[in-house]
Amino acid sequence: MSELVLEMCNISKSFNSVNVLNNVGFQLKKGEIHALMGGNGAGKSTLMKILTGVYSADSGEILIEGKKAEINNYNEAIDHKISMIFQEFSLVPTLTVAQNIFLNREDKTKLGLINDKECIKKTAKLLQELGVDISPVSIVQDLGVGFWQMTEIAKSLSQEAKILIMDEPTSSLTEKETDVLFDFMERLKNKGISIIYISHRMEEIFKICDRITVLRDGENIITEDCENTDLDTVISHIVGGEVASFEWKERDYSLEAPPLLQVKNLNVSNQLENIEFYIQPGEVLGVAGLMGSGRTELVRALFGIDHKDSGDIYINGEKKLINNQQDAIKANMALLPEDRRVQGLVLQHSVKDNMVLPIIDRVKKGLLVNEKIANNISNEYVDRLNIKTDNIYKQISLLSGGNQQKVVLAKWLATEPDILLLDEPTIGVDIGAKTEIIEIIRLMANSGKAILVISSELNELLAVSDKIMVMHKGKISKTINRKDIASEEEIQYAIQGY
Known about the structure:
With 498 residues, this protein is α/β, with parallel strands linked by helices. It folds into 2 domains: 4-239, Rossmann fold; 261-495, P-loop containing nucleotide triphosphate hydrolases (Rossmann fold, 3-Layer(aba) Sandwich). Helix content is 33%, strand content 25%. The protein contains 17 helices and 22 strands. It has helices spanning 44-51, 74-79, 97-101, 116-130, 145-157, 175-190, 202-208, 231-239, 295-302, 325-330, 340-344, 351-356, 371-384, 401-413, 431-446, 458-464, 488-495, and strands spanning 4-15, 18-29, 33-37, 59-64, 67-69, 82-85, 163-167, 194-198, 211-216, 219-225, 261-268, 272-279, 284-288, 310-315, 318-320, 333-336, 364-365, 368-369, 419-423, 450-454, 467-472, 475-481. The strands form 5 sheets. A 6-stranded mixed β-sheet has the order 6-7-8-3-9-10, with helices on both faces. Strands 16-19-20-13-21-22 form a 6-stranded mixed β-sheet, with helices on both faces.
């Protein structure tokens, strides 16, 4: 594993006079899985976008197998057998899985027409090798987020890449799907394919990677064999110091208080069956379960996005009819969705515009927005949630993932809700942002709000929850007080349906 297939030498890049990369070097060996790590905004995605021709470097050079390579667009990257699975999905939702995987690379018939049968056949074989149970003819928009990710992975692998870049590929995958992916990555590695692996899930790095490079503030901090370092050392390199671990803190709230949110006999066709639970003021209810267990479907139904076949929702003991999102907002509910970029933000708009969108009636003066009020609210939440941005007028797409997530949280906190529904609130954010978001959740609960948190990260769920409700195949299989849970394994068994 000594042959270098990639060298990125002295790469620098600035945006609007802001230095994002400063003489960064990165090397990749043949047949290795190399972790590229760092906090949100460290420069990881920018470096990889330079490698794939999405951005051009201001200075520096790229060598592929020892030869200088000019990569000015993504097609030229593919010509060099480089393929990237971006953190942001690149699929066309209205097309099938097969059509997305072979888009612009379709087999043709003798008449020059697209050979759909051959595309479907190749897709079925590829998905079978991946161990993914998706029909090649499924329309992508009808699939869950996890299956979108697996389709992205299949799309990249279909291009026979020698260098495969994976940017947060497991963020929407279950533990079982992640294990399937890791097995496949090992097979690719044994074939001599090199993988650059970007993830905020620390435990994955030591499970699958050979080496690790940490970037911080646009500079290369360290490159080391994984076997010669440990988790605490890596975290300290990422944040530039120590960070608090995810420890559960027992909290005081009234166990005698009437429920702030109570759900009775909630049913959604083919998704949820006889769901009943309650959350008291100041309580955090964690929801665990596999993808497809009904977790996201639950909060969508509660928030009026999906139709309910039956069931009653009580807020402060009063029955509420919540048939749409406006009803939910009027009932003082807020939802932080699973996919912030698609469902939670208007990426072309500013931080301020995104923050005031749900409270536009509060910041209007006649037909126009009262800029002073809007600015004050936006600046208040930037300060409260420690959102890193030059100013509130900055386009939201230019913020790091962790700061984007905090803006989504801020815009709903600005509605002053009594009930917060948080679907994967720490997905795709760095270790520092994770701890900040968990502390924000605790503070919101301490102020008397009822909070429901969905997370695939069990250590985070165990750190923040007062009770954990396990869902399996659209039903509640078990609800456990956090103080009675001895280990993650206890919840894992329940999630698997044991």
